[in-house]
Specification:
This protein is mainly α. Helix content is 66%, strand content 0%. It has helices at 4-7, 14-21, 23-41, 43-46, 50-71, 78-90, 94-98, 101-114, 120-126, 128-142, 152-158, 161-175, 177-183, 189-194, 201-216, 220-224, 227-236, 256-260, 282-288, 294-309.
Length: 310
């Protein structure tokens, strides 16, 4: 009986049947990833059109939240990292990862792009919880709720917490997977995205509290708590390209982008911290905008003065 499926020429592996049943979801996901890749490949060209980036990003966040998150259930999680690490220890079984085509496609795409652009592409564009958090933050801004800017010294300390959480979770994963699954609830993904808040009250309260904090402190969870983001940042450290343009005046003396970067991924020196950057492309828009980029504005002013003097 056990060998029967393998001797039956009509037998189709479960994962193939799952993929066939989700052809539409797979097609839409692949198209969206193609368009996102095109945006990043041509980001310098697109960034010269601020409204394209602004509304394009807003639209993609809605797509990520409602299609990838709520409909296709494509929320990546640190629990997926457990599965991979334990598989490497106990014997890798590729079929297990193929049973959820959307997660498989997103993980494959995320892993590849980590080494091209860093963690920002996933964290800023493809994470459903991140999209929910950012949309609520924009809503809070529209309501003119007070926004809290964490001081630089505190920010540098707080952003290390997510790495400590990641190390702790991975250590527990190898010791007791059951406990690791419980502790993984530090991620509010299951509550807010997978189960759409249909859980015990304490899980819902935790998720809503994090989202509430995020309405006053931009991407609070992503910046200081998320173990998945920490893991992606470690791998993304080895990325090939740093496509966010910088000028010699960036940071010395211009601080426009550093001040405008709500996630504090641009240092006062003008250098971009790609471990923290979510690739929102707002600084790239400023770089190309003659009405926002201080060095361009100063150069234009000098040119006009020289033309008048001449």
């Amino acid at each position: 009986g056990y060998l029967q499926p393998f001797s039956n020429p009509q037998y189709i592996p479960i994962w193939k049947r799952v993929w066939a049943a989700k052809t539409l979801e797979i097609t839409i996901t692949l198209i969206s990833l193609f368009l996102l890749s095109l945006l990043f490949i041509k980001q310098r060209a697109f960034s010269q059109y601020p409204k394209v980036i602004k509304y394009g990003r807003f639209g993609f966040m809605l797509f990520t939240l409602f299609f990838i998150g709520y409909y296709a259930q494509g929320q990546l999680s640190v629990v997926n990292i457990y599965t991979l690490l334990l598989s490497l220890r106990d014997g890798f079984k590729f079929d297990i990862f193929l049973l959820d085509p959307i997660l498989f496609i997103l993980w494959t795409y995320t892993f590849i792009t980590l080494f091209i652009w860093g963690r920002g592409l996933f964290c800023g564009w493809l994470c459903p919880f991140g999209a929910l958090q950012e949309l609520l933050y924009r809503f809070a801004q529209a309501l003119k709720l007070p926004q809290i800017r964490i001081k630089d010294a505190s920010h540098l300390i707080l952003q290390k917490i997510k790495y400590l959480i990641l190390i702790g979770l991975i250590g527990v994963c190898f010791y007791d997977l059951g406990w690791a699954q419980v502790l993984a609830e530090v991620e509010p993904f299951k509550t807010s995205i997978t189960l759409v808040f249909d859980r015990e009250w304490y899980f819902v309260l935790f998720a809503i509290s994090l989202l509430g904090l995020g309405m006053f402190i931009h991407k609070f969870y992503c910046r200081y708590v998320c173990p998945l983001g920490a893991g992606l940042a470690i791998l993304g450290y080895f990325h090939l390209f740093e496509q966010l343009d910088r000028r010699k005046d960036c940071g010395k003396p211009c601080q426009v982008c550093a001040v405008r970067c709500e996630i504090k991924a641009i240092k006062k020196s003008g250098k971009v911290d790609y471990n923290e950057c979510i690739q929102c492309l707002e600084c790239e828009v400023i770089y190309h905008d003659k009405h926002q980029c201080a060095p361009i504005m100063l150069a234009n002013k000098r040119s006009k003065k020289q033309a008048v003097d001449a």
